[in-house]
Amino acid sequence: MRALENLKPEKVFYYFEDICRIPHGSGNLDKISGFLERFAQDRGLYHIRDKANNVIIVKEATDGYEEAEPIILQGHIDMVAVKKKDCDIDLEKDALRLKTEGDYVYAEGTSLGGDDGIAVAYILALLDSDDIPHPRIEAVLTADEEVGMDGASAIDLSGLKARRMLNIDSEEEGILLTSCAGGVRVDCKIPIKRVSRSADMQCLELKVGGLQGGHSGTEIDKERGNAIQLLGTALCQLMQHDDFAFKLADIRGGDKDNAIPIEASAVLCVNKDKVSELMAETEKIAKEMKNEYRSKEKKLFVEACLCEGNADIKNTFDRESTQRAVAFLTAMPNGVQAMSADIEGLVETSLNAGILTCNENGMVVSFALRSAIETAKKKLKLKLDTLAGLVGGRTQEHGDYPGWQFNPDSKLRADMVRIYQEMFGTPPKVEELHAGLECGIMISKLPGLDCVSFGPDILDIHTTEERLSISSTKRMWDYLLEILKQK
Predict the structure, then answer these.
(1) Active site residues
(2) Which residues, 6+ apart, have CB-to-CB distance to 333 below 8 Å?
């Protein structure tokens, strides 16, 4: 029995469930790309699959729509694949365990991938239909959007005829997105030197967790706690006590640079006779942080405990490397940097420290930078360059993508506003987004492309609490079909 077989629209949820049976986290897209290729082959549809695992599928216009302007339907095939600590699913190999509760679909123990699996499901349902009127559809299904829009950057769109595009990658019904911020990923690499661990040192694990997390673009303005930043602050506070003189042995946090990290931890080694004092000081720091975040992060915890694998830890950062690492984590910018002066409530520039790792030679902090103003994005990158340099490190950027500028003459937007009001009795909101959408890249490849982004309600994307509204999925499906009817 299929978990979603009784939900409507039936074909949309049928294909959404098929997608969820195929592992498709960013960077693991061969199977989902192959599935799409076979789907097109089985239906005799023109298709292209490129080396980046992008897939383009074309379905010609239905009777009576041969002269209608063609349209691009676009979404991405990768998801942010995260799971709860006690979940036994292997996100590289296993299907998601879909469940329903009330009006929502969710995945047990993992993220759902409604962002952007619902776009792919909408598109497949349309391509598989024989009773839905529509113009020529050019389905553009891109790879690795969540890790820097790599697929959109690599895709060749020169064979497409359409100059209007529906990007189905928004998560709030009733909002039409018509511009978005540009962004870039920046890795800050801080060198470390390791030394043998002294026999008189005990290793402790310092953990920060219990945070809400969320999308580093759409939810950055909520000022939720960033586990990596809070860990750095806690380490710096401990470092103010010269008596502890701890050294780091390991430090980690976060899973995705575009998700606000919910957990981070460090292994620190301290003289055995200072363990009790350090743990007591950690309790004080925990109380302070919980008080500071009492209204924003009700489940925040900061704790120190003895390492179970204490005997296996053979070396540590040297004292200077420890100081450099902690200094960077304490001083690094994070969160909202500027608000728009033109649009009330819109974040203009921000960054998120999303991943913290280390190896034998260095510590790496990976950031997602976003700005509606290209020069502001570059200046924020310069700030990271400078800070990394001050502690002997360097930066490396990747996944740079342009913003999407508002088009005051968009016919597509005007049509969609009119159709929405006719269907639902109220006008949609037309907004800009402080997050990355692939529209800016598409426009750079197809000058004159008229774009609008929309989608059904999806809550808590990029987290294990992600939920897709069933009723909203139906309403936005009906809305999509009405848009396609227009000649």
Answers:
(1) 78, 145
(2) 351, 380, 383, 384, 387
Structure tokens given for 60: 């010609």
Residues contacting 90, CB < 8 A, separation 6+: none
Strands 450-453 vs 164-167: parallel, antiparallel or unpaired:
parallel
Q: Which helix (H) or strand (E) holds 380?
A: helix 374-390
Write phi, then psi, for 8 (nearest 5 degrees).
-120, 145
Q: Is the pLDDT of residue 340 over 90?
A: no
SS3 326: helix
Amino acid at 290: K
Mention every residue, 6+ apart, whose C-beta is less than 8 A from residue 386: none
Q: Are 244 and 270 in contact (CB under 8 A)?
A: yes
pLDDT, one tens digit per residue, over 220-266 is 999 999 999 999 999 999 999 877 789 999 999 998 888 899 999 99
- pLDDT score, position 487: 84
- Alpha-carbon span 27 to 20, nearest angstrom: 16
Say what the pTM is: 0.75
Q: What is the pLDDT of residues 133-161, one digit of tens each?
A: 999 999 999 999 998 899 999 999 999 99
Q: How many CB atoms lie within 10 A of CB 113?
A: 29
Give yes or no for residue 333 having a pLDDT over 90: yes
SS3 of 485, please? helix
Residue 73 has pLDDT above 90, yes or no: yes
% of the chain at pLDDT higher than 90:
85
DSSP letters along 190-242, please?
A: EE--EEEPPTTEEEEEEEEE-----BTTTTGGG----HHHHHHHHHHHHHT-T
Q: Do you know the residue count of the chain? A: 487
How far apart, in whole angstroms, are the C-alpha atoms of residue 224 and residue 213?
A: 7
